Each structure stands twice: as C-alpha cells, then as structure tokens.
Amino acid sequence: MLRDDDTLFAALIARDPSYEGFAYVGVRTTGIFCRLTCPARKPKRDNVVFFACRDAAQEAGFRPCLRCKPLDIKPPTSGALQSLKDRIKAEPDRRWSAGDLKALGYDPSTVRRAFQREYGITFTQYARSQRLGLAIGTLQQGGSVMEAQLDAGYESGSGFRDAISRLIGDAPIRLATRSILTAQWLDTPIGAMLAVVDDAGVHLLEFAERKALPNEIRRLRERTGPISFGQHPMLDRLADQVAQYFSGRLPSFDIPVVQEGTAFEAGVWDALRHIPLGQTRSYSKLARVMGRPDAVRAIARANGANQVAIIVPCHRVIGADGSMTGYGGMIWRKQWLLEHERRMAAEQQQT
How far is CA 97 from CA 68, 100, 177, 265, in A? Predict the structure, then answer.
C-alpha cells in the first residue's frame, strides 16, 4: 500500500532507498517520473505526484527519467563504477594505478568512494581481488607458482605469497592440493551482495554493509577452507536465480545451500525456508512450530547466525507485535524484501 504523500516526499528529499521499486514520483512541471533516490535536483512539494508502480506513472502521461532510469530493474550505478568493473573483467590481470584512472578521465578519490560505498572496498582492492583470483585459478589448474605470480602481475615472489595468504589464508605452494571457495560480488536493486560458493552449493550470501560479514568470512575460512574471487558455474547459477528473484520471477530458490552449524541451527534454518512467500512469523511462533516453545532466544540467535540471506529467508521473522526486529542487512532492506515478496505472492494468486 502506498504511503501518504508527506511521508513519500520526505523519503524523496532524503533519497531513501527503502521505497525502491514501490514508489515513484512524477514531476508535473517536466512530465517526467523518477525513483525516489534520483540524484536530480528535488522539485517543489506542490509540483509532485506519487505512484505505486511504473505503469501507473506512464499511464498518467509521465516519461521515465533518463538519469535514474526507473524502468530498469536495478538502479543505475555510477558511470565510473560500471565502466571500471567492465574494464577489470576484460583485463583481470592488469595492475591499476591512480595514473591509469586519471588517464581515463576519472578522479581517483571519487572512484575510491564509489567502490567503498557499493562494495565496502576500494577500487584498488576490488581489482586486486580479481587479479589474485585469476592467479589462484592458474595454481588450481596445475600451473606453477611462477606462472601464477606472473598472471597476477607480481614481480616479487614474497609479495605475491603475502597477498595470497592475506586473501585466503594459505601459502600458494599448498593451493593445488586444497579446495578453494570461490567468491564474487552480485549487484541487486538494494545493494551489492557477496556470494561464496563451491561445487556443493552456496556457503555465504550477504549484503556488503552487514557488520558481521568480516567475522562470517573468517569463520567460513576456518571451518571450510580458503576463499578466492573468481568464476564458478555455481556462481553463474546463483547470479541468475538472484536476478530472477529481484525481478519478481522466482518465488523460491532451488540452488543447494551449504551452511555449517549445530543441529539446532540447521533445524532453525530449515524452518525459515518453510515460511511461505509473502508471509512472516514471530520468533515465538517459529519456536512453537519447531516444538521448542521454550527456545525463543536460541532461535533468535540461530536466525541471526544465518549467512545465506534471501535464500534462507531470515528476513521473514518479525517481532510478536509485528515490529521489524533487527536485521543485519539493515531494517529498510528487510521492509523492502517483505514488500517485494508480498507483491510476488499476490501476483502468483492472480495467475
């Protein structure tokens, strides 16, 4: 249900992302409609009208904004960020410098902030992670340490070993005999997510801003094995399903999930996956469903320990009074996901 206009206008001024996909603003003086997060100059209160969906805005005669592109499923990223990601993908072995960015017409400080805002790491760190992933791939395929070192663009053998060890916690010479988890960033309409997989399935899927993410990565490395950025068929499958989910075409995931935890935690995570799309459960109701009415706090802790967001839908658990209780991916995202799923469920019932 669309919020009142005063609330939506305040969200427009604040560029609040929690309404992304669920509210649009039409500007009467220009005949254009935008996302509430559009960076364009804000119109006067009397000159705007709000819509619950893009179709309603277009039916009212408004044209989509060329800046925020409200018809696209995902909000447009900055030109610099997307262009540089494409360049890194095309040249994963390149060692980028501030001079390279300036030569392309980018301000290094602006690029650094853009990558930190989207992924929590700098452009240099992002590029390095992709380069090291390429080198690790060489080692896993039986290449020598020297070949991997050259692939990664390192002249110093000790520098290469230190970089690899910091990234995945093991020395390069041992990698050919160890299983490596593969990581990659996935872009979504509500922010970047870090995905970690192997042949068995998805080990981690979390939003970049989650405060617990560094500790989750550390535990995953300790429990399961080293992690490298790179390409993997399971990542391709995951990226496709995540994109379909956010576009409203995938009500449930069938990709395998691999989470290490206690038998009790595994039981909670399984119960979460049985909460129907478009519905929520309180911690106390979840405890009763599991036959553990006295374990509400333990269930809340297990819910918080889930590190495969969306697929294991811990966001579907709310307070007994209907309040949006804590969510590591930020409360506004929890609200967004619940509204997105409510609409998906409603559309399913109509078909």
Answer: 30, 5, 33, 45
Are 236 and 139 in contact by the 8 Å Cβ rule? The answer is no
CB 171 within 8 A of CB 161: yes
160-164 long-range Cβ contacts below 8 angstroms, 24+ apart: 160/135, 163/128, 163/132, 164/132, 164/135, 164/136
Same domain, 146 and 118: yes
- Within 10 A of 189 (CB to CB), how many other CB atoms are there? 17
The answer to whether residue 270 is domain-embedded is yes
Q: Which helix (H) or strand (E) holds 34?
A: strand 32-35
Sole residue written with tokens 């990601």: 85
Tokens of 139: 């080692």
Q: Which residues contact 253 (CB under 8 A, 6 or more apart)?
A: 241, 245, 310, 311
The angle formed by the CA atoms of residues 88, 181 and 131, to the nearest 5 degrees, is 20
Are both 52 and 196 inside the same structural domain?
no
CATH number at residue 333: 1.10.10.10
pLDDT in tens, 94-138: 878 888 888 888 888 888 877 877 776 778 878 877 776 666 665
Same structural domain, 270 and 322: yes
Grouping H, G, I as helix, E, B as strand and the rest as coil, residue 202 is strand
Q: Within a 10 A sphere around the Cβ of 224, how many other Cβ atoms?
A: 17
Measured over the CA atoms of residue 187, residue 190, residue 192 and residue 198, the dihedral's sign is: negative
Cα–Cα distance between 82 and 76 in angstroms, integer?
Answer: 9
Same-domain pairing of 196 and 170: no
Q: Are residues 345 and 275 located together in one domain of the fold? A: yes
Say whether both 310 and 324 belong to one domain: yes
Active centre residues (catalytic): 314
Q: What distance lies between CA 276 and its chain's CA centroid? A: 22
User: What is the residue range of 202's domain?
Assistant: 179-351
Encode pLDDT of 263-304 as tens digits.
Answer: 999 999 999 999 999 999 999 999 999 999 999 999 999 999
Q: Nearest Cα to 292, choosing from 270, 260, 268?
A: 268
Residue 308 near residue 197, CB atoms below 8 Å:
no
